[in-house]
Every structure is written in structure tokens, then in C-alpha cells.
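Sanity check

After download, print the first record. It should look like this:
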Amino acid sequence: MKTFFQLKRFAKKNIIPIIRPKSAKMLRNFCRVKKPKKILEIGTAIGYSTSIMLDAFKQTFVVTIEKDEKMAEIAKQTFKDRNLEEKVKLIESDAFVALNKLQNEKFDFIFLDGPKGQYFKYLPLLKGMLNINGFLLADDVLFHGYVKKEGDPGHKHRTIVASLRAFINDLSSDSNFETKLFEYEDGLLLCQRVK
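Expected C-alpha cells:
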């Protein structure tokens, strides 16, 4: 799969969640403008968002983490088809395990699009991995609108919603970060580490 159209069609046919159109446009524009030299991505899936970032700024290098073995194999093929193999390091692992191993590395940009219930758990590790003036962009932080709704989201979603609320509140109240919530699609949280 070489083109973005082919990747989107494959994702739709196989019911694989990928970044939504407006969010993808923001991600692309962000990488074009900010030109991050080193990116960390949590949640590779088929390599769609990785490809967007590398297409937007060709001089960057992406370290991307994917736990699902089948997804990782598809992503490897995507990177091969798009001639991106030298610009990507794919780590096949549970994200929390991988992040602990990457603690000595620093990144200009972190794109967080893994399991939503784990965002808050990852946060202390991610903060330490982000360069001063670096950015963190978290996708799907409103979780189908449940995060902003009043009251109990129900047993099925309670843990994920509580984790995402804690994640947003932590970054919003941390003086080391400037944070903005974009409420279109399923919500994006953009944070810059200012000190």
C-alpha cells in the first residue's frame, strides 16, 4: 500500500481505527510547520499516521510502538512500500514496557494514539522524554464525548473516561506545559513543554 488512499481504504475495509481526517490534517500541518527532528509515536497500527508525519517533514525520524503483531507486520510492509524503512524504528512491544526502555531518549514531538485507558499511566514517562519546547499531541481524548459529559459514563467506559479526565487535568494544571484542547472529531490535546 503506497498511497494514503490505499491505506485509508484498507483500514475501512478491515475495521482498523486510524486518525480521523481533520485530526490527520492537523498532524500533517503541525509537522510541516514545527519540523520535529525526532518523533515518538505510541500506536502504529498500519503505519498511516507515521506516514503522514514523514510525508509532512521528510527530515524527521520516527520511533513508533505497536503491541499487535499483525498490525506491526502490516506497518512494516507500509514502510517498505513507501520507502520509509530508514526513517522509522518500529518497536513491537507493550507501550509501557517500551517507554521504560526508552527513558534515556529525548523527542521533539510525541504523538499519543495508543490505548486510551493507558494515557495517564504513560504520562510521567512521556513528560521526561519530551525536549523543552517539544510538543505532545494526544488523539481521541474525549472518547466519543464521554469525557466532557456530566455524570457516570457507565460501567463499560468508567475506567477509560476517568483515566482520560485525569490525563487532561494533569497536563492542564502542570506549569511546565501549555495545553490546548481541540474538540472536533474525538478530541485532540496539544501540549507544549515550556520548562
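If your output differs, re-run the checksum step. Summary of this record's structure: The chain has seven helices and seven strands.
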